[in-house]
Write a structure and sequence with these properties.
By secondary structure, this protein is of the alpha+beta class. It has 2 domains: 123 residues, PAS domain (Beta-Lactamase, 2-Layer Sandwich); 173 residues, Heat Shock Protein 90 (2-Layer Sandwich). It is built from 9 helices and 12 strands. The strands form 3 sheets. The protein has a 5-stranded antiparallel β-sheet. Helix 4 packs antiparallel against helix 5.
Length: 376
């Protein structure tokens, strides 16, 4: 090993706080440091990674080799490209496909002339971050449009209702049913507008919030509404700390998501045999899982947070229809006949008011709504 081995790993311990994979290597590819994210992604101990050559972990290492050597000799300060990383054993067993991971590689200089920094970002992770940023911007624009439109709709509704009531007083009883239709539809639109404006009407009541108390409250409400054929599984990380937020608004947000999942599972609940025990879903039965986890070094709406909580609401229903999957948080978009398409919109608005975000991954048999909220 060259003299650069004197660079001890504590010089690079700060990289352990990063969510992306980071390695510090010599020009020949020998790995002197690998952060925790790299260790986890490679499914090997850090010692095993640091005793290896980084080039050995790539399906086609020539471009990485040329780039690292070019940066090391100061031909250029940094470079980036896509590559394929081989995880686990360096060589797959005969007849076995290697476990490969598509990554975006960023090679940069360090303050040490003979050492090079290599950062690896999963392409799937980058795609998700791009999608989250796009969703955040779209939801912000849609929220402003919806609020303005709701106010414009709300103003004439009172006049229409009042005019219909006055007209009903002048009509014969057999014609009053028509004015009742007008009044009924105006009331329905008024209710819709009220729901759109609800998150903006009152200042948030901020206090200490425990995410598991919220989950338990929602769980009890849903099980009262669906007492048979639905199983709600708790998978909590009890080490999560309290945080500051509006408890009632967050209950409403989580309730909207879980309610949405329960409605998607309704056909499975209706197929349940009448003699089965309440609250237990057998094989193929309706099941919702409430899962909480801590996340580190999270970016939400272009802002970086050291710690965040993740609440996953996962169900085993049919999944979100593909044609609305990208628009599921937009107002009036619903995959259910008779749905208003407001529940998820309001949940997303409440999450963003807490500097968080909700995203969704869905396929037949598994839908996962993830609410991410920053922690102090």
């Amino acid at each position: 090993m060259s003299d650069s081995s004197q660079h001890s790993s504590p010089n690079f311990d700060a990289f352990d706080t990063l969510a992306t994979m980071v390695a510090v290597v010599q020009a020949d590819g020998e790995c002197l440091f690998a952060n925790a994210a790299f260790e986890n992604a490679m499914r090997l101990s850090r010692r095993a990674v640091q005793r290896s050559h980084l080039y050995d972990w790539f399906v086609d290492s020539q471009r990485l080799r040329d780039t690292v050597q070019g940066v090391a000799r100061n031909a250029y300060s940094s470079s980036r490209f896509d590559a394929v990383l081989r995880r686990g054993a360096r060589q797959a067993a005969p007849g076995q496909l290697a476990d490969e991971l598509s990554v975006h590689v960023i090679v940069s200089q360090t303050e040490f002339e003979d050492l090079v920094l290599v950062e690896l970002i999963e392409n799937a992770q980058q795609t998700r971050q791009d999608r989250e940023e796009r969703t955040f911007d779209q939801v912000q624009a849609t929220k402003e449009l919806t609020r303005n439109l709701a106010h414009e709709i709300k103003n004439p509704l009172g006049g229409i209702r009042g005019a219909a009531q006055l007209l009903a007083m002048e009509l014969q009883p057999d014609l009053q049913e028509y004015t009742q239709v007008i009044i009924h539809e105006v009331d329905r639109l008024q209710s819709l507008v009220d729901r759109l404006l609800a998150p903006h009407r009152h200042a948030p009541v901020v206090g200490d919030v425990n995410i598991h108390e919220i989950c338990e409250r929602v769980r009890s409400l849903i099980l009262v509404e669906y007492p048979r054929g639905l199983k709600i599984v708790r998978d909590y990380d009890t080490s999560l700390p309290d945080f500051r937020g509006d408890r009632e608004q967050l209950i409403q947000a989580v309730l909207n998501i879980v309610q949405n999942a329960a409605l998607a599972l309704l056909p499975q609940m209706q197929e349940r045999s009448p003699g089965a025990d309440d609250g237990v879903a057998g094989e193929g039965g309706a099941c919702i899982t409430l899962r909480t986890r801590v996340a580190r070094q999270v970016t939400i709406g272009k802002q970086r947070w050291r710690l965040a909580l993740e609440l996953h609401v996962e169900d085993n229903g049919p999944g979100v229809p593909a044609e609305i999957r990208e628009r599921i948080f937009f107002p009036l978009v619903s995959g259910r006949e008779g749905g208003t398409g407001l529940g998820l919109t309001l949940a997303q608005t409440i999450a963003q008011q807490h500097q968080g975000m909700i995203d969704c991954e869905s396929e037949p048999g598994r839908t996962d709504f993830r609410m991410t909220l920053p922690l102090p």
